[in-house]
Amino acid sequence: MHLLRPYAPSDLDQLLAVYGAAVRSQCGPFYSPEQVQAWAEHCRPGGELAATISRGLTLVNPVGADDGRIAAFAVLDPGDRLALLYCDGRWSRQGRGAALVQALEREALQRGERQLRTEASQLSRPLLQRLGWQIEASETVPYAGVLFERWRMIKPLNLAAAPAHG
Question: Is 162 helix (H, G, I), strand (E, B) or coil?
């Protein structure tokens, strides 16, 4: 079971660091060096990433119960969109991303949302598909002056209402 907690403003610097570490440590096999560089440089304290983290419903996953470090985080912004899902590569492939997504799905359902949407990267698409998300379309979009392929995905939440697994 992964410990999850709500975001606190004092977490912002760590979440920006997790974002940069996640991109640099895991995206190389899927993206060109130019894409990784453009993506990783997006974690400025006063930028849109920081605003999304602060504005949205953000959950964080500490490394451990008694560890002040954060391994992963996810954000709903607005309430029907999975805007961000990032895990530092040192702690990836341990179920942290799935735990965050499932917790946000439950929270969105409790808040009255019936479907979630997102734009998934090549890294997050397989995880989301395993969790029952469906691809609506692929698209190529410019980001920081570089083109990226991503997938618009949805998940009906009435299918996500099953109880959480430990």
Answer: coil
Write the class of the CATH domain 5-160: alpha beta
Instruction: Enter the pTM of the model.
Output: 0.89
Answer whether 53's CB lies under 8 Å from 44's CB.
no
Pairing of strands 146-156, 134-143: antiparallel
Give the sheet arrangement for strand 57-62, strand by strand.
Answer: 5-6, 57-62, 70-76, 81-87, 115-120, 146-156, 134-143
In this structure, are residues 53 and 72 in contact, taking their beta carbons and an 8 Å threshold? no
Element (DSSP H or E) covering residue 105: helix 96-110
**Of 69, 82, 159, the residue nearest 124 (C-alpha):** 82
Residue type present at position 32: S
DSSP conformational letter for 133: -
88-101 pLDDT, tens per residue? 988 888 899 999 99
Q: Give residue 140's pLDDT.
A: 94
- CA distances to 65, 85, 113, 147 from 61, rounded to whole Å, are 10, 11, 23, 30
Contact 60, 162 (CB under 8 A): no
Burial class (CB in 10 A: 0-12, 13-18, 19+), 84: buried
Give pLDDT < 50 ranges for the chain. 160-166
